[in-house]
Amino acid sequence: MAIITQDYFCPRIGMASEFRVVLPESADGTLSGAESTLILLSPEGESGRNWLTSTKLKVLCDAYRTAAVLVPCHQGCYTDMALGYPFYQSLKYVAEYIRTYMRGLPTDDRKMAIAGVSVGGNAALRWAIEEPDLFGAAASFSGMYSPDRKAGGWFTENRLENLYGEPQNRAALKESFRELCRGASAGKYYIFSSQNDDDASAAAEIAGALGAEFRTAEGSSGWKTWSDELAAFMQWWKEERT
After folding, report:
1. Euclidean distance between CA atoms 124 and 41, whole angstroms
2. Angstrom distance (rounded) from CA 1 to CA 90
3. Which of 20, 110, 136, 220 registers the highest number of CB atoms within 10 A of its CB?
4. What's the pTM value of the predicted model, to 2 decimals?
């Protein structure tokens, strides 16, 4: 497995940024050209390292001849923050950067997919809905679909306000995302949620609005679950392409 860390200046937020690229390995142990590209987004506050240490990502990249682009989440949660920077716009810039500076990664002819966990799942769906010609498929694992949730855990009241604004604004953002899903005109979507995940009922609602492949399981989700679902999604995505 080869991992490239790409440091670059993102004009959308006016600061230095980075992402990692996991390259597939051929049967003889040498690196060869990827046949597709998967953008992977992380849960709130995470750098993307758990995709490397807690999932079967390396095996999947090799098996499906896919390059994985790990975009950090950190504090911005892939949102255009109410009190902060437009990190959702900086996320979208990643595709532009890849096309310009990393031309060996496939992006044309819907050879790119996107997937994410929690806030990363929300952003993955949003981007795929807004640009249906860019992605061949999109997946959300245990997606965070309710910015109007009660404060708790990582989502302190201060963080919720910085990310999504005042409570009335959070409710409006929640409804606008559902409207976006109901109005989606194209795309292939894969949604997973364990029954005890925070937004399990919302996941079923959104899957219905998108006509998505919907999977559920008992209990609560963790990295073992998301690793298994990543494998299932990649198989589903590749079968859809054949």
Report:
1. 7
2. 27
3. 136
4. 0.95
